[in-house]
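Exercise 7b. Backbone tokens:
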């Protein structure tokens, strides 16, 4: 179905109104081209596409109380699209939940993105994503960002992914405020290349839940920085992660190579404690030039240059 003009398509609820493909025979179920402005889909579900369920290139597109589930891929927002996902669910799709590219913008409000077989959210190119009062849980990976994409997370939870909570690469920018990054099987956040992240008033706790993280050859930390990444942490809590609370990709931190030349700034209000749940960093101290490198601080909290 291609929507060529402004309209509101409202169903009777996600259990009663369904846009679907018999025997999953359609690659695309709903398409909103770039020429179209002012489309709202509400109170319905979109399911069983063998490609993308919803393809958005138009502007002023709203998906409200919508469930996108059991597709190959759920939502694609591209071109110069501007869209909102409000009080909705993207769940149980085989690959990604929401994928953005080009200069697209997506605002996600009071929604749930969970149980997808790839990334919950995948942002590329110069795409921008705003995530507010939303949970991203139980995906293969929570959020991946590349190129010069920007993601801003406020009052949300990124938790219980099969692998990492967030991976930020290239020149992407991540802002996290008043949120929780917790219970991910791998690292809570991996920041690499020349990416930048600001973490404010956020809890990064109990990451590295995967059983392999308990082994000496695996390092699973709350936050890991690589390459030329730039990280700022303010007024936050980093606790009870399997290995380091905060670590750079360096040999002295247990990695195979020295691969970090970026910068890390942590303010005095930030609490980093009770990490090294695996005890693999016992005897390592807290290497580097930072306030946690003191004899009275338990081993395995912070490892930096």
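Sequence design result:
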């Amino acid at each position: 179905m291609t929507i060529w003009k402004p309209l509101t398509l409202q169903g009777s609820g996600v259990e009663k109104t369904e846009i679907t493909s018999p025997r999953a025979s359609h690659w695309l179920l709903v398409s909103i081209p770039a020429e179209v402005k002012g489309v709202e889909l509400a109170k319905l579900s979109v399911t069983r596409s063998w490609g993308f369920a919803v393809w958005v290139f138009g502007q002023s597109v709203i998906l409200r109380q919508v469930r996108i589930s059991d597709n190959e891929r759920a939502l694609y927002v591209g071109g110069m699209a501007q869209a909102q996902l409000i009080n909705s669910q993207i769940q149980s799709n085989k690959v990604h939940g929401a994928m953005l590219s080009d200069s697209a913008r997506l605002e996600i409000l009071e929604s749930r993105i969970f149980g997808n077989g790839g990334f919950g959210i995948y942002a590329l190119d110069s795409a921008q994503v705003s995530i507010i009062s939303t949970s991203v849980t139980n995906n293969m990976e929570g959020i991946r960002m590349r190129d010069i994409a920007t993601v801003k997370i406020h009052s949300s939870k990124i938790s219980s992914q099969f692998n990492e909570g967030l991976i930020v690469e290239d020149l992407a920018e991540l802002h996290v405020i008043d949120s929780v990054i917790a219970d991910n099987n791998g690292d809570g956040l991996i920041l690499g290349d020349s990416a930048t992240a600001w973490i404010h008033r956020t809890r990064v706790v109990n990451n590295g839940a995967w059983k392999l993280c308990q082994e000496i050859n695996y390092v699973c930390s709350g936050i890991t920085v690589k390459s030329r990444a730039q990280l700022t942490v303010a007024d936050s809590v980093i606790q009870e992660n399997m290995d380091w609370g905060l670590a750079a990709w360096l040999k002295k931190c247990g990695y195979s190579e020295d691969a970090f030349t970026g910068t890390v700034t942590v303010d005095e209000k930030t609490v980093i404690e009770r990490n090294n749940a695996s005890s693999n960093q016992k005897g390592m101290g807290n290497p580097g030039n930072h306030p946690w490198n003191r004899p009275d601080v338990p081993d395995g909290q912070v490892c930096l240059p």
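Instructor comment: The CA atoms of residues 263 and 276 lie 23 Å apart. The chain has a mean pLDDT of 96.
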